[in-house]
Design goal:
By secondary structure, this protein is mostly helical. The protein contains 3 helices and no strands. The chain has one domain (about 20-160).
Length: about 160
């Protein structure tokens, strides 16, 4: 932006909506990650409940080989699921940070126009790029979490073979 006087209100609104589109995209990503978070937490709770039941039964008698194998599998799965929850948490934090940066970017675009601050574009662009980097990190954590989820499923299947 060389001079702010060239921009009409409609053009400024269009500039402000660009970060708004990213806010919407991050909202969809957050929705998916929150769903994944709930599923992983519920799986941890179910496995913990199964583990408690096995220990309760063990108090009455000696463990059989199948029960020992299952107990070991449950312990490994819980450990890996806790790691997955951390990955989901990190993705959510990065997406939320990106939303905040995009909101600030949009507000600053409006302030720049209304207060005729000519030399503010570099800072605004920097905030927008930080928001995009935050989305990239969030997507990276989400992808890594998906890979780890597949590993846990493979473990479950191998134990039952």
């Amino acid at each position: 932006m060389d001079t702010l006087k060239e921009f009409s209100i409609a053009q400024v609104i269009q500039l402000m909506l660009t970060p708004g589109l990213m806010i919407s995209a991050c909202g969809l990503l957050l929705l998916g990650m929150n769903n994944k978070y709930s599923l992983v937490v519920n799986r941890i709770r179910l496995l913990n409940e199964e583990k408690r039941r096995l220990f309760f039964k063990a108090g009455e008698r000696i463990f059989y080989t199948d029960e020992n194998v299952r107990l070991e599998s449950i312990s490994i799965q819980i450990e890996r699921l806790v790691f997955r929850v951390k990955l989901v948490r990190n993705a959510v934090l990065f997406y939320t940070t990106a939303v905040a940066l995009f909101v600030i970017t949009s507000i600053l675009i409006g302030f720049q126009f209304f207060f005729m601050i000519d030399h503010f574009s570099f800072f605004i662009t920097g905030l927008f790029l930080l928001g995009m980097l935050s989305v990239l990190f969030g997507v990276s954590y989400a992808a890594y979490e998906t890979i780890k989820g597949y590993d846990i499923i493979q473990l479950e299947v191998k134990v039952d073979e």
